[in-house]
Amino acid sequence: MSGKPRLTYLNGRGRMEPIRWLLAAAGVEFEEVYLETKEQYDKLIKDGVLLFQQVPLVEIDGMKMVQTRAILSYIAGKYNLYGKDLKERALIDMYVEGIADLMQMILMFPFSPPEAKEKNLESIKERATNRYFPVFEKALKQHGQDFLVGNKFSWADVQLMEAILAVEEKIPAVLSGFPQLQVFKTKMSNMPTIKKFLQPGSPRKPPPDAHYVETVLKVFKK
Q1: 86-190 maps to which CATH number?
Q2: I need a surface site. Which of 15, 73, 95, 189 has the fewest CB within 10 A?
Q3: Can you name the CATH fold of 6-79+198-220?
Q4: pLDDT in tens, 167-176
Q5: Which of 162, 159, 99 has its CA nearest to residue 128?
């Protein structure tokens, strides 16, 4: 064992991408194992490696962790990205859960039938611009600080940055009415660990394509 966290998932974003983002933002190198067949996935289940028969799986500090949320909060706590007290942690949790709701729509988008794509894209735009992004715009404006919580870089900032870029891929002008988020995005992009993660050749995955969708359906088919 190299001591690096070991991530087992498909070679694509899915539910592992926020974990890759958070580790990268914390400056932690990791290894990846990619599932490409149903047999590989079934073997993990048969071997009792997956607590709830689900991936993502992250092997870290001698643990075999599953459940995205549990993995993320462990990493955030371990690398001091989870606020200074319970109140800050609660605020980070609220922000993160809100962003996760928006990201769920983006996660499912590649799997929607062709005739539903336009409608689903419109839903993402509507939710991002009316429900989610205004919350963060207001928070940044009200306290006039660079980060969302406690004027310190946290898990919430990382998750928001990931969401901004994911929505922008689909709706390039989505931040046009959010000046604070535009500034936030520029600052985040220039943080050394995030800047490195945004470079070509980093572990960041490209937007899901037809091959990724096909692989997901093949690996997880009932």
Answers
A1: 1.20.1050.10
A2: 189
A3: Glutaredoxin (3.40.30)
A4: 999 999 999 9
A5: 99
Max distance between CA atoms of the chain, in angstroms, equals 52
Report the amino acid identity of residue 71: I
Q: What is the pLDDT of residues 162-214, one digit of tens each?
A: 999 999 999 999 999 999 999 999 999 999 999 999 999 999 999 999 999 99
Query: What is the residue extent of each domain of the chain?
Result: 6-79+198-220, 86-190
State both tokens at 123: 């839903």
Query: What confidence tier does 1 reach under pLDDT thresholds 50, 70, 90?
Result: very low
